[in-house]
Design brief:
Layout (H helix, E strand, L loop, with lengths): L2 H7 L14 E10 L2 E15 L6 E8 L2 E8 L5 E8 L50
């Protein structure tokens, strides 16, 4: 590991959230107000993810009072407390910049439904039941 990678490794988050472009997410952002700190939610559609190590960012877009609002969040920033996925969508692009020019029904995306079961690490899968002695396949 070179010096830069070694120095940057301590700033990376240990567990990065799993989300993709097109997902509707809740971004929990830490806001400093005077002496107090609170968490504010920013809910919207992930337009893009730019992957570049510690400088990885993602852009989230939402509509507020008829105006589009986009925010770019650094993934490894201490101000991003958490990212929760609310809805997964089917997309065929890595950047959804075309949504900036769409509104209403034309900006809708088809929901993606994962059919595979979630595998929990450390939990054993149930063993298959043995076939009866008289049964043949």
């Amino acid at each position: 590991m070179d010096r830069v990678s070694h120095a940057v490794a301590s700033y990376r988050k240990k567990k990065t959230p799993e989300f993709r472009v097109g997902d509707t997410v809740d971004v929990h952002v830490r806001i400093q107000e005077g002496e107090k700190e609170r968490i504010q939610l920013f809910t919207g559609v992930v337009l893009c993810r730019k992957r570049s190590g510690i400088a990885e960012t993602f852009t989230v877009r939402r509509i507020v009072q008829g105006e589009g609002v986009e925010r770019i969040f650094p993934l490894h920033s201490p101000f991003v407390a958490d990212v929760k996925v609310r809805k997964r969508s089917v997309v065929r692009r890595s950047k959804l910049y075309y949504l900036r020019h769409r509104s209403g029904k034309s900006a809708r995306m088809k929901e993606r439904i994962d059919t595979r079961e979630e595998i929990v690490p450390g939990e054993a899968s149930p063993a298959p039941e043995p076939a009866p002695a008289g049964a043949t396949a």
